[in-house]
């Protein structure tokens, strides 16, 4: 733990009905000495659900910030934490599922906002099936019953025909049977339930992301001492050894404080350093 960190012995609030504090709290405590309190009276599902009954109106970052602000408002604490996840095909490898997680910390005293995000492996998946079909290989793949599932009719006009949080095989069989009756195709969709407390893989991801947040918060701005001084950009343009034109190789990392705007170049390459001509668009197009 870092001694004399501004957040040491402070309290932060998180608004969650999915027990995210279990993954996030211990990490903030261990690395920063910051205690996390859970506010469960605010229904975070009102900002959007994974299953789409309530569409998410804002983008992920805005939603995470809104959760952090609600936590501050309802707890009267200085610091709020908000988390938001999104699951689907990987943007570059479409046959692979991936989950993007965002974590935001807002300090209402200073107005400081620190955000981290990461793309994680996930068991996010779904299967179209009907009663009496063998679904064991799918269930093994998503690690059921450690991970819960949702069942809904494949095609239906019936409203609210959805069963969530299933983690008992007999309940799953019964849900497939009862909901197939509402499906115009006679088939149902089984989907991983991505709510954090029902998905240990996601809980693990949240813990790892919190470590990233703690690391970022541990760096104080050299100018105003706000927590969260970190990498925001890189400067490209290392010169080619042959033609001396700029390449796309990195010259320096740019660290910045979101609060006061102070920025600093780090890991700057030696001014005499040159890029190999094989990275040059001119010499090696
Ligand atoms: Zn600063
Ligand atoms: Zn060149």
Distinctive features:
binds zinc ion, 5-stranded mixed beta sheet, 4-stranded antiparallel beta sheet, 23% helix, 285 residues, single chain, alpha+beta, Dna Ligase, domain 1, Rossmann fold, 5 helices
Describe the structure.
This protein has three domains: 134 residues, 3-Layer(aba) Sandwich (Rossmann fold), CATH 3.40.50.10150; 67 residues, Dna Ligase, domain 1, CATH 3.30.1490; 50 residues, no CATH class. It has five helices and twelve strands. The protein has a five-stranded mixed sheet with strand order 2-1-3-4-5. Strands 6-9-7-8 form a four-stranded antiparallel sheet, covered by helices on one side. Strands 10-11-12 form a three-stranded antiparallel sheet, with no helix packed on it. The site of one zinc ion has 8 residues, from loops.
Topology:
Blueprint: E1 11-15, H1 21-32, E2 35-39, H2 60-75, E3 79-89, E4 97-107, E5 112-121, E6 126-129, H3 136-141, E7 149-153, E8 163-166, H4 169-180, E9 188-192, H5 200-218, E10 230-236, E11 250-256, E12 263-266
Parallel strand pairs: 1-2, 1-3
Antiparallel strand pairs: 3-4, 4-5, 6-9, 7-8, 7-9, 10-11, 11-12
Helix pairs in contact: 1-5
Bound molecules: zinc ion (ZN) (2 copies).
One zinc ion (ZN) is lined by residues 221, 223-224, 226, 257, 259-260, 262.
């Amino acid at each position: 733990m870092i001694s004399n960190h501004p957040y040491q012995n402070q309290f932060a609030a998180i608004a969650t009905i999915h027990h995210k504090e279990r993954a996030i709290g211990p990490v903030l405590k261990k690395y920063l000495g910051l205690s996390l309190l859970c506010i469960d009276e605010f229904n975070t599902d009102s900002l959007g659900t994974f299953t789409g009954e309530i569409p998410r109106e804002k983008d992920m970052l805005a939603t995470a910030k809104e959760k952090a602000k609600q936590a501050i408002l309802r707890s009267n604490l200085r610091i709020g934490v908000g988390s938001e996840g999104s699951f689907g095909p990987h943007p570059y490898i479409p046959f692979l599922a991936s989950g993007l997680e965002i974590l935001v910390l807002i300090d209402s005293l200073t107005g400081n906002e620190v955000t981290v995000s990461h793309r994680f492996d996930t068991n996010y998946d779904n299967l179209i099936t009907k009663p009496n079909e063998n679904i064991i290989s799918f269930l093994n793949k998503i690690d059921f019953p450690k991970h819960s599932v949702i069942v809904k009719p494949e095609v239906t006009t019936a409203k609210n025909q959805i069963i969530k949080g299933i983690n008992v095989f007999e309940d799953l069989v019964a849900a497939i049977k009862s909901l197939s009756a509402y499906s115009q195709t006679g088939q149902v969709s089984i989907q991983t339930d991505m709510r954090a407390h029902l998905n240990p893989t996601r809980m693990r991801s949240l813990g790892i992301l919190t470590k990233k947040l703690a690391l970022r918060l541990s760096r104080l701005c050299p100018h105003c001492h706000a927590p969260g001084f970190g990498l925001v950009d890189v400067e490209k343009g290392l010169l080619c050894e042959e033609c001396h034109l700029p390449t796309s190789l990195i010259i320096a990392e740019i660290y910045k404080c979101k609060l006061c705007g102070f920025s600093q170049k780090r890991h700057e390459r030696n001014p005499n350093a040159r890029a190999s001509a094989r990275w040059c668009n001119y010499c090696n197009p």
